[in-house]
Amino acid sequence: MPSTSFTSPTTATNDAGIGTTAWTITSVTNCVCPVDKTTSNYLEMTGYGFDIPTGVAISGIEATITCSSSGSDTLHAQLLKAGNLAGTSKTLSPLATTTFGTTSDLWGATWSEAEVEASGFGVAIWVVGGANGNTVNVYGATIRITYTTGGVAAPGSSTSGHFLFTWVI
Prior knowledge:
Layout: E1 11-15, E2 24-27, E3 30-33, E4 42-46, E5 57-69, E6 74-81, E7 84-85, E8 90-92, E9 98-100, H1 113-117, E10 122-128, E11 136-148
Antiparallel strand pairs: 1-4, 2-3, 3-11, 4-10, 5-9, 5-11, 6-7, 6-8, 6-10
């Protein structure tokens, strides 16, 4: 199935919609949060700028979070649709660079080409601190979209991004 490249966001913002500890954001590759035994705010990564072919069906979304922690903390990641949490969250503990989702995982939501191209599409990250004095660093969150082309496949052909035309004369 065709897919985009893993793409980096253009924007990282702190959203106080959860937790009590704010992220210090220097850039999309340098976000720090002293979580102690608290829950962080959302770190929202958006502005991926995907250009998906028109008429495709989104079949999977992968998000690679590059992070580290000074202690035993739990990271949560959930996709954003139009700037709002969508689908189900993924969890990781202990923190390490990991890829959430697969080429066939939609994270419990449905997605259109327009929704993943929109500026409000992205990933929200939050952390629950395991001990006092812990600091979490997020160095990036890249996303890759896997899709299938629309239409009905002819016998013996594929809808994996290439069209097969057969003329009978």
